[in-house]
Amino acid sequence: MKSGSKIVVLFVLSFVLFHCSSSHEDAETEESQNVTVSESLSCIEQLKSTLMNIESFAIGDSLENTESDFQQAIKFYLSTIEEIGIPHQRHYVQNRIAYCYYMIDEEMMAVDFLKQALHATSLHDSTHCQILFAQTNLLLGQCYLYIGNFPVESLEYPAYYYADSAVHHLNQSLVYYQENLEETDKTLSQIHHYLGEVYRVLHRNYLVAEDHYIQSQKITSAKPRDNPVAQLQNLYCLTCNNRDKGDYAKAVIYGKGLLDLASNVNRDDFKSLAFSCLGNIYFDSEQFESARIFIDSAVSLNLRISGKETELATFYNNQIVVLTKLGQLEAAEKLCDQVFDFLEGKPRLSHELPDTYLYKGGILEGLGKSQEALGYYHKSLKARILDEGGGHREIATTYNTIGSCHLLNGSIDSALLYFQKALVSGSISFSKQDYRFNPVLDQVMTNKDIINILENKANALTAKSIITEECMDNYILAFECLQLCDLLIDHTWSSLLIEESKLMLGSKVHPIYEKAIGIAYDINMQSGSSFNIGDVFQFFDKNRYRYLLDNLANEYAYEEALVSDSLVKAIKEIEYGIEYFTQEQLGDADHSLDFNNEILKLTENKEDLILQLENKYPDFFNIKFGANKTDWVDIKTSLHNRNTVIIEFFYGAESIYILSTDGENQSFTRVERDSNLDKAIENTIRQTTAPDINKLTQADASMEYIESSVYIYKVLLKAVLEQYKPFSVEKLIIIPDGELTKLSFESFITKQTNDRSLDFSAQSYLIDNYSISYSFSAGSLLNETNQAPSAKSKVLGFAYGSHGIADLKYSALSGSDKELKSISKLFRGKFFRESKATEANFKKNVSDYGVVHLALHGEADIENDSSTMLVFRQSESDLKDGKLLPYELYNLDLNARLVVLSSCQSGLGKTYLGEGVYSMARAFAYKACLSMVSTLWPAHDAVSADIMSEFYLQLSEGSEIDYALREAKLKHLSEAKGYLAHPALWACYIPVGKMEVVRIQKKHAEWFIILAILPLIISLA
Questions:
Q1: pLDDT at residue 807, rounded to an integer
Q2: Model confidence at 870, in pLDDT bands (50, 70, 90)?
Q3: For 494, 606, 784, 799, which has the most beta carbons within 10 A of its beta carbon?
Q4: Which of 601, 717, 713 is closest to 658 using CA atoms?
Q5: What's the pLDDT at 17?
């Protein structure tokens, strides 16, 4: 979907900078203006006055400024040039001629005159020439910007030449004005704006573009009443820029800011553009109903205010695409035909025809009329090449669409032909038409659409491998396409600053990773070797908790690059603020725009701090990306001689892939998802996460659970584990994915017994054979960024207690008090019970303790991560206090070596495809608490107290975390009677992260030391 046509590129033409009257006015009103500029502007005014004495110039000036008859003005200006010989006078008139050509869309003619003007300036040195030189460069930059975005077949050079030329001339102008104008001058704002346009539209370097837009916005924001239109233009372009780079959440923030400002200053034209932008963003993020609402609003407003036909045509086309995506093909086709009627006889709107043809083809393809669809796709291609030239991003989109249609019809060779053409058109200086070649990263890294083209090409190659003898070669080529996709995804990821945008990206690329892993598995099976296991591992590990690992890498890089504490604190406070206002926005629709404006300010402040980080600490990003890269060899090395197996899962739409290693050996397995496996997983989750206590040991329910658990074990784990039996494996590290994150693997029953008593204490569980822990990802296991624990490694404990809160529907947890009492007998620390177990006390004390134990109520919302929380007691001073949300941890100083979340569902939350579960456990891990115990479902109060008491007893004896929890569970099973042996009651606790021994100060440790040395003291006495 398009945001607009020519207006997207040249929105700022309402301020033509080489017209000197407005600049002269600025020079007179600003007392502190540089004298050189004032003199130059005065000379220009005198120059214009002198030229007005020439009749042909005076007529041309009138035609241009009064009647906007640029064609006739040119004729009279050309006559003027013949009458004068003074260089700076000729230069000034050549500028005016160039501007007139520019306004009638003859930019190449404008460039010729501007080049002549620059040449003349270089031969002379005068006060006139400096500012004329700057003005000419500025207009040249504008011309090259337009030419580069709307290339035609007759162009002498490729589009990127004009992009580089635009940057060169705009920078030449910027240098002059920066040296001679105040930092707040609107001329500087406009130049930054144009540079932003060049980098966004031509270079597609969205990070540099954003820097220029923000510089422009800062200048206009300094005097908001003087130029609200410039602010609107910048907000519009910042919205488009962030949409182009895939930062959809940030684009929405800017889009809403644009809408708010446009409403405040009564600019309905910008308001309609804001509606259109927001519609496009929601479309790209696959929120099609929201997209439709905003696009319809753009059309309605444009019609009501008698807006521009150019914009209206774009809005109509966007409506067609939304209707098609919503499956309303008849309505889409009817509107499409109306748009053809609307465009008929309007040659100035011809640039919209390629899109309308393309969308008509999409409708026909959806109706099963593939051949007719191809006809319209080729019409679109022909019209687009005629309008835009051959090497353009939109051309690549059309080629890709034609290729997809051929692939759907089984014409694989034709599909590959067009996918390759799409790569050539969408890349910089890549020209190979042979599908066996791909561009390199530098040639495509600025075009996010290339990801879809490469994915389609990989699909075609895998389809071709099935019907040709070149099977292995095509599989390898397909895998290489997806590896390049991965590099592009990495590049896009690194440019996103808003968490929500990264989550959207993760969701979109999940199918790509699944496809890459599937192809690698097929290669593995056909070649009979462990082909590219290291490369396959990258696709496994990037699929989960990538944002979490990114933050941990940040923490490491802050420390290694010696980033100042004040800068780190400022960045973290802004991140907290963004999340705070985001949550407030969700809960308060009446003040949504106010919150959005706060988010907008914070986002811009974060951009500034990131820029400071880059400038002051150049090593930071190199350290960060090095820390964030996990290598398969490193994983294997970390396991060497540890009697441990890592088992990592990828939960795909069609298959579950399993990658495992013990450091020496490795395996790569695929399990097809069928109804039996899905049903077994569903049954197991249902009977553990929400158990009916009265039915736990009833025959039917018990048998169903046992059969489901045994089935999952046999399908997912049995064959994998048997490969490692000869190697004395003692520990398993499970890295689950998808629905598997809701399962307690240690409770898997490994044998189907003939005993019909259904005694759960007598079952054979996986925990009988292994000590089991879990990890967010393999990368987090290698992460060494944990903050040093407090010198006083004591326990901070909270227990909800034996009294509930009826109005809040939170019951008593008498077992939690028992937990805290047993811990306090073993270890030194501070323990809050009952009314003192408040959120305020937690926040006040948490930074001072190395172990944190929270025996509280917990909630996990699988639909909305903002509703996942830990529930403390309310304090008397603040009745709102008591609900600790994940984002609140972002602004706390945590130094915990171990966090035990002895609360309900602390390991559950909303699951984001490609990232993982947004749980309270993840929130603590985000703060570099790398060792945890969390819960997968509501804990049983009495059983929890027993397990936690034994767990801490094991810790006090020097056991590792996973071993301590295992021993506690096994002890419970050995003593459990009746329904208390059911896994639903003891298996909810899982150890997550690093499992090393935790050194905790024991209670009365000082007395043991004194007693030990007392004999020595007595003997000395």
A1: 47
A2: confident
A3: 799
A4: 717
A5: 38
The pLDDT value recorded for residue 386 is 73
Distance CA 986, CA 980 (A): 8
Phi, psi of 410 (to 5 degrees): 85, 5
Strands (E) in 128-195, as ranges, are none
Q: Is 988 helix (H, G, I), strand (E, B) or coil?
A: coil
Burial of 971 (C-beta count, 10 Å sphere; 0-12/13-18/19+) = middle
**Whole-Å CA distances, 259 to 215, 226, 265, 357, 446:** 21, 19, 10, 31, 28
Whether 73 has a pLDDT exceeding 50, the answer reads yes
> For the segment 781-830, what is each residue's pLDDT rounded down to a tens digit?
776 434 444 445 899 999 887 665 544 566 556 667 888 888 999 999 99
Higher pLDDT: 628 or 853? It is: 853
Strand spans (E) along 395-530: none
Phi, psi dihedrals of residue 826, rounded to the nearest 5° = -95, -40
644 vs 501: CA distance, rounded Å:
36
Average pLDDT score over the chain: 83
pLDDT value at residue 962: 95
The three-point CA angle 125-130-131 to 5° equals: 145
Widest pairwise Cα distance in the chain: 119
pLDDT band at residue 387 under the 50/70/90 scheme: low
Residue 459's CB is within 10 A of a number of other CB atoms, namely 19
CA–CA separation, 243 and 201 (whole Å): 12
Give which of 976, 892, 994 is closest to 940, Cα–Cα: 976
Of the listed ranges 17-31, 79-93, 296-310, 548-562, the one predicted with least confidence: 17-31
Task: Give burial (CB, 10 Å; 0-12/13-18/19+) of 821.
Answer: middle
Distances (CA, A) of 428 to 280, 399, 424, 431: 26, 16, 8, 9
> Could you tell me which of 8, 34, 14 has the C-alpha nearest to residue 178?
34
The pLDDT assigned to 781 comes to 79
Eight-class DSSP state of 200:
I
How far is 435 from 415, CA to CA, in rounded Å? 10
Identity at 270, one-letter amino acid code: F
Q: Are 872 and 839 in contact (CB under 8 A)?
A: yes
Cα 105 → chain centroid: 38
User: Phi first, then psi: what are they for 658, rounded to 5°?
Assistant: -130, 125
Cα–Cα distance measured from residue 481 to residue 458, given in angstroms and rounded to the nearest whole number? 6
Question: What b/e sequence results for 731-758 when a residue is b if at least 16 CB atoms lie within 10 Å of its CB, and e otherwise?
Answer: bbbbbbbbbbbbbbbbbbbbeeeeeeeb
3-class secondary structure for 595-619? HHHHHHHHHHHHHHHHHHHHHHCCH
State the first-to-last Cα distance of the chain, in angstroms, to the nearest integer: 91
Name the residue among 541, 520, 519, 521 with its Cα closest to residue 648. Answer: 541
Distance (Å, whole) CA 512 – CA 812: 47
Instruction: For residue 883, give the nearest of 945, 955, 808, 825 by alpha carbon.
Output: 808
Q: Would you say the C-alpha torsion 855, 860, 865, 869 has a positive or negative sign?
A: negative
**pLDDT-derived band of residue 121, with 50, 70 and 90 as boundaries?**
low
Q: What is the pLDDT of residue 10?
A: 40
On the 0-12 / 13-18 / 19+ scale of CB atoms within 10 A, 956 is middle
- 655 sits in which H/E element: strand 655-661
Q: Is the pLDDT assigned to residue 279 strictly greater than 70?
A: yes
Assign residue 413 a region (left: φ > 0; alpha: ψ between -120 and 50; beta: otherwise).
Answer: alpha
Burial class (CB in 10 A: 0-12, 13-18, 19+), 800: buried
Q: What's the token pair of residue 133?
A: 């030189």
Share of the chain above pLDDT 70, in %: 84
